[in-house]
Design a protein that fits this description.
Structural class: alpha+beta
Mean pLDDT: 94
Number of domains: 3
Helix content: 25-40%
Largest sheet: 10 strands, mixed
Distance between the termini: 39 Å
Low-confidence stretches: 341-349
CATH topology of the largest domain: D-Amino Acid Oxidase, Chain A, domain 2
Shape: globular
CATH architecture of the largest domain: 2-Layer Sandwich
Strand content: 15-25%
Number of helices: 17
Length: about 525
Amino acid sequence: MDRKNMIADLKNTTTHWDIAIIGGGATGVGTAVEAASRGYKIILIEQSDFGKATSSRSTKLVHGGVRYLQQGNITLVLEALKERGIMRRNAPHLVHDLPFIVPVYDWWEGPFYGIGLKIYDMMAGKEGFGPSKILSKEETLELIPTIETEGLKGGVIYHDGQFDDARLLINLMQTATEQGATMLNYVKALSLIHENNILTGILAEDQETGEKHSIRAKVIINATGVFADSIRKMDDAGAPEIMTSSQGVHLVLDKSFLPGSTAIMVPHTDDGRVLFAVPWHDRTLVGTTDTFVKEYPLEPTAHEDEIAFLLKHAAIYLTKDPQRSDVKSVFVGLRPLVKNATNETDTASISRDHTITISRTGLISISGGKWTTYRKMAEDVIEQAILLGDLPESDSVSKTLQIHGYHNNSKNYGPLSWYGSDANALEDLINENEENKKLLHADHSIRQGEIIWAVRNEMGRTVEDFLARRTRLLLLDARASMEAAPVVAKIMAKELGRDEEWEKNQIREYTQVATNYLLD
């Protein structure tokens, strides 16, 4: 998959695209898959890299949402549980079952949470990942030996899903291109083009060359997450702001803090927030906060009180109390939420339902939602696009469309398991020479050949693309990723035909970004 070929598609298309999509996160890329698989002529542009913002910084969970069940949003939970099952069937190399234990310290918690999670099981029906049940103290300790034992009476186990968000997004991008879509990272929408008060196109700029392109389309979809209002104001300067956001902070610790394969979920901390401790890529991920924010930077940073909250509560529920020095990386994701007119600052109570709006000029904006329901969001917005653009009717096939990399036994590939069916070809590339076989960093299993693979097959364009999203080293071990950056820059420069100055700039820029993922 070659970006040059994608740019050539853009330049050589003289007729209108059926649909142009702005935004390369889960919603935009999922929409491209939905539309292209129905046979429409699609282009997607993303100002940075695919998944640069929210979609690569989730809690790595595919879930119906126990919290939304508590809020009484039955419709969202049912929809998410159904979509959870579809995700596992279509991308089993990246989506898998994860058992969770709710620790019980008060006598009433076992029956209370037990009943609630049985309802959760019942709602999942045949899409369930496993039955919930009440555990004794001994059973709880057997599954989570590092759980705090003082006052522990037992636990309730239930099952949800886990995935690698950025890797799934890359595979979705590849799926979209296989279905005929033109997918472009580092192409920014500068303005929208109107003719007779009707939206007809996008003026876009290639961020790598500075070249401008006019993209004409029958329908334009705004799928830019927390940045949706900026595109809506390009269309209509007087458009009211509909987006708000909270940020979720995650701390990444060594596996010793949670050595098993079972996660911890605390549904109600002392200030009402949900807390997770989750095993992920041989690390322990602790999150998440829910802090209202008014600004939406591409690189959000954690507030000191959020870090203190996570360290404090991790210490309450784990026998090994984490210190700041134990944190391998801290990453922050922004949640795209559609405003609740009654109380827009109470983000925990705002629904994660998605919203579709159509402006007077014809801009379709899809906002809100969450990773688990990305496919349903895409299906809904394309149905609207078909009506608005008077496109030929075509049924959705995404419920059964296997995602690129589909493989039922990818665990057999060991460290390359997340590449799924691509692992064989990647192994061949790694084995071509001794340089490709070398470890990128002594503490991690990433091979130098994976850098070449990312450039040639996954549209990796920068050091950050590789270390943050094609692999997850930035999130798993920020300091190690900084140490690996010079090697990544050198190999990428050779593959991309860049000079030494590009290498130096990449190392400098990456170091600036990665520093935000360190606590000290």
